[in-house]
Amino acid sequence: MTKVYGRGPSAVHALRGVDLDLYPGEFVVMLGPSGSGKSTLLNILGGLDVPTSGSVHYRDHNLTDNSDTALTRYRREHVGFVFQFYNLIPSLTARENVELVTDIARDPMPALDALDLVRLRPRADHFPSQLSGGEQQRVAIARAIAKRPEVLLCDEPTGALDAETGIAVLEAIARINEELATTACIITHNAVIAQMADRVIRLSNGQIAGVERNTHRVAASELAW
Amino acid sequence: MKRRALTTKLIRDLLHLRAPLIAIAIVMACGVGGLVMTRTTSESLRASLDAYYDRYRFADLFLSLKRAPEAIRPEIAAVPGVAQIETRVSIGVTLDVPGVIEPAVGRIISIPDDRQPSLHRLFLRNGRLPDPDRHGEVVVSEAFAEALGIGPGDTIDAVINGTRETLRITATALSPEFVYAIQPGGFVPDDKRFAVFWMPHRQLAPLYDMEGAFNDLIVKLSPGAREQAVIDGIDALLDPYGGTGAYARDEQISHLFISDELAQLRTMGTVMPSVFLFVSALLVNIVLARLIRTQREQIAVLRSFGYTRLQIGSHYLAMAVVVAVVGALLGLVFGAVLGKFMLALYVKFYRFPIVLFEFGASAAAVAIAATTAAAVLGAIHAVAGAMRLPPAEAMRPEPPGRYHASFIDRIGLLRRLSPSTKMFLRHVERRPLRAMVSIVGMSLSISILTMGTYVSDAIDYLIEYQFVSTQRYDLSLGFTEPRAGASVFEVAALPGVIDAEPYRAVPVRIHHNHLSERQSIIGVQRGATLERIIDDRGEPIVVPPTGLVLTESLASQLKAGPGDTVTVEVLEGQRPVVECRVEALARTYIGSAAYMSIDALHGVMREGDVASGVHLTFDSAETAPLYRRIKDTPQIASTTVKRASLDSFEETLAESILIMRSFNLAFACVIAVGVVYNSTRIALAERARELATLRVLGLYKGEIAAIFYGELALLMLMAIPIGLTCGYYFALTMSALMSTETHRIPFMLTPQTMAFALAVVLAAAIVTALDTRRQLDDLDLIAVLKDAS
Ligand SMILES: Nc1ncnc2c1ncn2[C@@H]1O[C@H](COP(=O)(O)OP(=O)(O)OP(=O)(O)O)[C@@H](O)[C@H]1O
Ligand SMILES: [Mg+2]
After folding, report:
1. Which residue puts its alpha carbon closest to atom 25 of ligand 1?
2. What's the domain range around A45?
3. What is the value of ipTM here, to two decimals?
């Protein structure tokens, strides 16, 4: 698929022919220089955006020529998002932020269990403003996984965190990936994180510049940067 | 370089925020415009009146009497404090106006033979003064001439003292005595049926047996004269000649009406627009403050780059000032144009030789200062708030809300609610100010709409009260002199008359403690049905066998109530002075009076069965013959045709009040719509990020719309009772402030008015919802993840 922003001379070719398969239960890390199209690709995978040409399929759904309602249903039922800027709702506690998703999901886990997975159960009744950045990011992960998503998409989940907190967040993601057999796709600028992945995809200038398969996955706790 | 970028930001922001900013400017314009319009109207009228009185020598004291010899003039002139006097003959005549089937009446006033009078000079619109040697030449009042389309050279027939005379018009004129020209006993001008003529004394006096005598006196006081002393001096001189008591301008009919109207206009024109101005200033403040607060991260970022407080402050102040200037200028133009229009409307029934246009400059200055201050304060407040933030906050896209577990959490009330409901309740609970601002805005909208609308209910009620409940006659005739009771039978025998009831009206001065009022006591028959007296509960009052019934307005002027005894000094006949008990109070909205049983009044006057006039109902099929007979009847000073007074009431007073109301209402609507629109737009701006996040998490468009509009709907629901309650008190206050001696505006709040206010606000909400729904649907889900604002 391709993605072009704008048109005419000022058009930006964010994705120039990307062909990619993601498999169930796979842990994928996406690397690439700034502006290479990582976020664009992730947003399309998550049903937040549609490609300019080409098509995207999720199982038997075609995400390309779908209406906004269908895309919303896809996000609602199958996708968990984690954003660089957490995007928690400040007026809701950690638990309620998670409930935001469990309330509308088909087969969610209890909100407290989700918080357990990110080791934040004791902070369930705290508001985002009472949590550190890393804790907020873990709440965001709990929110993303609580619906038992088939797909977990994370855009620079550790971008704003120190190493220790970053590792705690990555651990949480890895656990979900293992315990729920969720397909996880993580964007990062931190090449070290790539050691955790089954597959590492390198993007450059809107194209896939290379795919590596790790023979040995390193546990998050063993990473250091 | 830096400044250039910031200026670019200013222009981009202004363009980007144009919809809410234009809405703010329009709200301001309505506040400013409303105030300027009404003040321009009332100040122009006031200035025109003052100039007119001054140039055309409007008198200070007035007196009518039976007949006094001219020889007494030097004695009157010698009363200390008298600067100038004019003695006149003034008589009531019945007119036969071609083409007008209803009987009309006129007043002929003498003028000096060869010159303009020294007081109450005439402004000749055209023609010349009458030749004192030519029989029947007169100057006619312009309003009457215009209504009939007659002018110099035309003639009109009048029955003067029983004789039919033909009056030849030499000029049309205006007099400061008749700025507001109404028939005796009337309260609205009916130009076709009331004429004033001026005739040289030499010609008029013989017609009424007044050679070398006068029955009307007007007096100009010397500067610094003590009014009451002069009145006492003149009364002492002229009481023996049947003087009915000298009175000052505040009891002169035309002046009384116009000054009451001016007072009312000033109230209506100050209170309501001031409320508008206040509301709009408040809203501008709030809205601008919130608008700027949505840019707090930008402010913090700029600060972290090293922009000074001053630079940032002036950047946002510039935004506020641009909006304020645009709003104020729009308002001034609006106000001046509409003021001119209103003025034109008023001078249709207040007659001035020249109308001075006095721009309500002081009001405009106040209005501009208020709105600009509101805008600037709103901006400063918001900018200061944003600058208190440490710039570091800019690094975090969303300022973390300071949410804590609260009371309602602790009692577990929220447990079972859906997260979106919790979100809303938390918003309200933890940012009560924001929720309150929306509620205040919407409830003020509802209340100013209520205040703007209720006046028309009040006028409808007043018309119903005046013309249906109390005045139940079709026609009322006032005699020039009291006549024997038998004349009622003559009237009853006229063609088509169904019912006829006599009444007696006696000029009196009523004293209570140190207060006194010149009034008429109306004597009515105990079983009278054609003119009913009604109490404050709407129940008819049967006049007591003895004692007085006072209108509430008169009672409050005299500070007298039921059970009090007042002193009645009769100013006619043998001028008896008696003590009377106040038995009850009557409610009237137009005029004030004292009522007494006609028999008791005869007793007081020590007179037989006489009547000052008669109220009658008649069969409308016989209208033409009846009116023809009345036109030939001499000694009729006034003919009040209910249909005609109702029509002219609706055309004049009611119209001007209702037009004023329409403008006010339009302003109220715009303000209300502006408020609802703006608070919704801003709520959306504030919540966009959160709502987009919810969309990303998988909520449908419909679901976030339900959250967003649900909140607004709930806030509106809370605003409704507050708004209606405030509206009730606004209207009540307006009614109280607008009552004057001649008329009061009833307080009357109908469900329709309330429904209307709600409907406007609701319509505004719906339109806004439709407008913002597009934005809500087009929320940029990706952008919201990338950055904060
Ligand atoms: N809305 C947009 N309009 C125009 N161009 C855009 C838009 N969004 C992204 N782009 C461009 O598309 C290209 C890819 O952007 P994308 O956000 O996918 O990069 P990225 O790989 O995520 O970079 P980073 O690591 O900096 O986040 C960039 O050149 C960017 O400028
Ligand atoms: Mg990116």
Report:
1. A34
2. 2-222
3. 0.83
